[in-house]
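Box S2. Input/output pair 1.
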Amino acid sequence: MAMEIAILKPPFTRKLNREGYSPMHLALQKKHYHTVRALMTLDPKLIRVHGRGGITPLHFVAGEIGDNEQENTAVHIVVKKGNTEAFKILFGWLKRVCLTVIFNWKDQNGDTVLHIVVSGEQQLEIIKLLIGYTKVHAKNLQHQTTLQIFQENPNCNQDVEDRLRCQEHRARRSTPTLSLSQYFSMELTCFEKYAGYFGTRNENVREMLLIVSTLIVTATYQAALTPPGGYWQDSSSNNPANSIAVTTNSSSIAIGKPHQAGNLILSGANLLCFTILNNLVFTASIGTVWGTAITLYPDTKMVYLSLCLLSIAYFVFVTIEIPKSDMLLVMIYLDFMSAH
C-alpha cells in the first residue's frame, strides 16, 4: 500500500507527519527495510530528506540520532563511532549518486571527515578510501591539515603518511592556496567574464536563454533539412515543359534548368542568402547555449559533446546538400566577410 501511494503521489514521500518524520524515517524506525529499499529505488534523494531536528535517514543508517547543531553529516557520525562497515555503505552510496563532495564538508570545528579519522584511532582502511575523494590540504579552525594531524599521532602508519604527503603535494601544485586579498586582486577568469556577459548569474535568465536558444537551434536545423522550395522529385537533362517539384507545402509544376532528383530547387542568390543567414543564426544559438553552460563546467561535458556532434552533422549536411556551384559562392562570400 505504501509503495502504491509513493508511485501515484511522489510528493507524499517527502512530506513530514506531525512528529516531523518522513515515510523513510518511519520505515527505518520500524525496521521495514524492504520499504526503505523500495523507496530508495523510487527516488535515491529521499535518504537526504530532513526531519525533526535536521535529522535525515542517513543519520539513522549511521546509528546516531544527534542534532545538526553540531553540523555533523552522517559520514562524520560514522567515523566518530568507528563503524567501518557503515562507512563503506555510505561511501558506496555517495559515489553512486555523485555526492562525494560531502566528504569535504566541515563540522563546527572546521574538520572534514578525513581530519576526524586521522585524529583518532588508526582506521587505515577508511583513510585510504578517503584520500582520493577529500581535499587533504584543507585546514580546520586550528589551521591544521590532515597530514599535520596524522603526524602528531604516535601510532601513525608510514605508508598512509606517504600517501597523504603525496596527495597534499599534488593538491597544492594544482590548486595553489590564495589569501582573500590575492584572490580579489586577480583578473577575472574567462568563466567569470562569460557568466557576466550571458547573464548566467541569474538562474531565470539562464533558463530563458537555454529555452529560446534551443528553440532557435531546432528551427534552423529543421530549415536546413527542409529548405524553401523543397527538392526536385524528377531528373531532367534539358529544359522540360513540365518538371515535378516537391515543396515544403505541396507539389507543384515548375519550369527550370536541367536538374537531378533530390537536388535543391532553390539556387543562385536566393540559396546564398538563405544558407548564410540560416548558418549565422544556427551558429549564434549554439554559441549562446555553449556560453550559458560554460559556468557549470565540468558538469556540462556531455552538453558540449552533444553540441559539437550536432554542429558537425549540421555543416556536413549543408555541404552535401548545396550544389558545388552554389557552395563556391557561399565560400567566397564567407571568405570576404572574414577578411573584413
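Box S3. Input/output pair 2.
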Amino acid sequence: MAAIVNAANAQLRTGGGVAGAIHRSAGPGLAAECREFAPIRPGQAIITGAHRLPNRYVIHCLGPVYGVDEPSDELLASCFRNALKLAEEKGVESIAFPAISTGVFGFPLQSAAKIALKTVLDVLPDFTRVNHVRFVLFSDADLQVFAETLSACANA
C-alpha cells in the first residue's frame, strides 16, 4: 500500500492501538513531522512521510469520539473523504484504512462500517489515481461486519 491511514489522536502523538503501532514502526522522524501539524480536529486528515515504514505516506485522521464529537456520522465520513482526497492529490494509487473510531472512541462497528464503505464507494469514482482501497481490521469478527456491510451496499 502506498499510503496507510493512522487513526490518530488530536496531538498526532504515539499512543495505543493503530497510532502506537504506526509510530513505533515508523521511528522518531514521524513524531517530529507530526508536531508541525498538531493539533487536528475531528474529521480532519493530514499527510506525512512514512519514515521507516515501507509505505510512501501516512495519512493521519482524527475520528470522532462517538456521542461527544457531533455530528459523529458526518465527522467520520469526513475522515474517509479527506484521506482519499489527500491520497489523490499525492498521486497515491493504493490506501489502507483501519476501522476509524471503533476502538476507544466508541463508534459502533456496524455503523462505522456502513459510513466508511458508503463514503469510499461514493467518492472513489471522482478520483483518477486512487484505485485500490483496503480495510485492515482488528479481528475476524470486524472483517465479517465489513464484508456483510459491503455486500449490503453492493446490493442497494
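Caption for Box S3: The helical segments are 17-26, 28-35, 72-89, 109-123, 140-155. The first helix runs from residue 17 to 26.
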